[in-house]
Design goal:
binds magnesium ion; 9-stranded mixed β-sheet; binds adenosine-5'-diphosphate; Rossmann fold; 32% helix; disordered N terminus; disordered C terminus; alpha/beta; 9 strands
């Protein structure tokens, strides 16, 4: 496993990319169980997130998405929340993937009542907030799980009630991390991008299809989402040589988001 950092800059956004290693089980990839290098990668991500909003005061709402399923969005969302909480920030993680929720499964917290229940107003906030605590490090943050799976996730996530809920929650937290569904196929993540401060895109090595990633970025740009940066999930030692790290994805980024650090590598990297 290697840690790697890459800077990308576009006119609109200040994009960063982080590499996280492949490892064995979900449990070994969360919070205090993460290996040293991945923990360091998350610290870097945290630092850059903290500096991503120089003009914004108050709570930052950050969505985590990707083009496809299984790219590591939920793991990234949980670990980003953990990392911010480890820096003594007051953090709330919301499982906003109402179709295939996984925060409760990965954390061992209960799935419902959660977000969907709050959005149809059958539950009070206090009933849905759960505390996710890590014994060995004493780090903890709050979680709102997905709730019962609803028949109309896009409608719920795009509802006025969702905006109001997030606005209310911003009064109590410094960071709200939203674990979102993928961009391709359903509009859930796009409708939520209206109410977030910024979006992190997860890209998984040898998994993410480049044309789908390209399409996902296009769609996010179309709705004027602020892309904060990319998390490169599944980096391995051999592929983290400077300039070659992102392989086929790197080439796309370099074309799309001119990179001031990686200029020299643009020709070398990619396919
Ligand atoms: N870096 C990684 N190394 C090994 N397995 C991973 C890695 N990232 C994700 N996975 C596996 O892929 C599955 C999907 O990850 P998850 O975070 O649930 O993705 P998403 O939320 O994007 O669908 C996880 O259960 C995990 O087993
Ligand atoms: Mg997920």
């Amino acid at each position: 496993m290697a840690l790697f950092k890459f800077n990308f800059k576009s006119k609109k956004n200040n994009n960063e990319t982080y590499a996280l290693a492949d490892s064995a089980t979900d449990e070994s990839m969360i919070g205090d169980k993460l290996n040293f290098a991945s923990t360091e990668a998350y610290k870097l991500l945290r630092t850059n997130l903290m500096f991503s909003f120089p003009d914004e005061h108050g709570c930052k709402v950050i969505g985590v998405t990707s083009a496809m399923r299984g790219e590591g969005k939920s793991l990234t969302a949980i670990n980003t929340a953990y990392s911010l909480a480890a820096a003594n920030k007051k953090v709330l993680l919301i499982d906003a993937d109402l179709r295939l929720p996984s925060v409760s499964k990965k954390s061992g917290l209960r799935m419902s009542p959660g977000l969907s229940n709050l959005l149809v107003s059958t539950n009070k906030m206090a009933d849905t907030l759960q505390h996710y605590a890590f014994k060995s490090t004493s780090v903890s943050f709050d979680v709102i799980a997905s709730g019962d799976i609803p028949p109309n996730p896009s409608e719920l996530l795009g509802s006025e009630r969702m905006s109001i809920l997030i606005r209310e929650l911003t009064q109590y937290f410094e960071y709200i991390i939203l674990d979102l569904p993928p961009i391709i196929d359903v509009s859930d993540a796009l409708v939520v991008s209206r109410i977030v401060s910024g979006i992190i895109i997860v890209v998984r090595q040898n998994y993410t299809q480049r044309h789908l990633l390209s399409e996902a970025i296009k769609q996010l740009e179309f709705v004027n989402a602020k892309i904060l940066g990319f998390v490169f999930n599944g980096a391995t030692e051999t592929t983290t040589a400077y300039g070659k790290t992102y392989g086929k994805y790197g080439r796309y980024y370099k074309k799309k988001y001119s990179s001031y650090y990686a200029k020299g590598e643009a020709e070398e990297g990619g396919e």
